[in-house]
Amino acid sequence: MSQAKRVQALPVADGRTGVRHVFVRDLQLLCRIGVYRHERRKDQRVRVNLDLAVREGEGETADRLAAVVDYEEIVERVRRIPAKGHINLIETLAERIAEACLVDERVRTARVRVEKLDVFPDAASVGVEIERFRLG
Predict the structure, then answer these.
(1) For domain 3-10+17-133, which architecture applies?
(2) Total-model pTM
(3) Tens of pLDDT, residues 88-133
(4) Residues 93, 86 contacting (CB under 8 angstroms)
(5) DSSP calls for the chain
(6) Positive or negative CA dihedral for 127, 4, 8, 107?
């Protein structure tokens, strides 16, 4: 049986199932991204949106950062990815971002949308959205 068949989608944020959503909206990065020669010469603006389905801990969070998924830590991981160098495909960037989000074992699902903002003058953006699940 393939891995995809063993995975069931998590419900929306719901106290009965112990799922909350942590999100980051409209994070803008400068990236060297693209397969064309002109894309290798200069940074491009990229917008990233994240929606993470997070398993809530037992009991209350006791108002402690260590008890929750820290969105600042997630954002810092995402910012480090383009800093490592040129990436050919926006799909590759999205996959790397999803992997970075799933490092925290409490993150069950990572939905990642990555958009290049300056590709076509008559389009606000082009891009890709993926959703990755933690198995088990």
Answers:
(1) 2-Layer Sandwich (3.30)
(2) 0.85
(3) 999 999 999 999 999 999 999 999 999 999 999 999 999 999 999 9
(4) no
(5) --HHHH--PPPSSBTTTTEEEEEEEEEEEEE-B-SSGGGGSS-EEEEEEEEEEEEPPSS--TT-GGGS--HHHHHHHHHHHHHT--BS-HHHHHHHHHHHHTTSTTEEEEEEEEEESSS-TT-S-EEEEEEEE---
(6) negative
Cβ pair 91, 56 in contact under 8 A = no
Q: How many CB atoms lie within 10 A of CB 17?
A: 13
Q: Residue 9 has which token pair?
A: 């989608």
Residue 132: alpha-carbon gap to chain centroid: 9
Asked if residues 107 and 69 have their Cβ atoms less than 8 Å apart, the reply is yes
Nearest to 127 by CA among 117, 25, 42: 117
Q: How far apart are alpha carbons 50 and 70 in whole angstroms?
A: 13
Domain range summary for the chain, segments of one domain joined by +: 3-10+17-133
What contacts 29, CB < 8 A, 6 or more positions away?
45, 46, 47, 48, 78, 79, 82
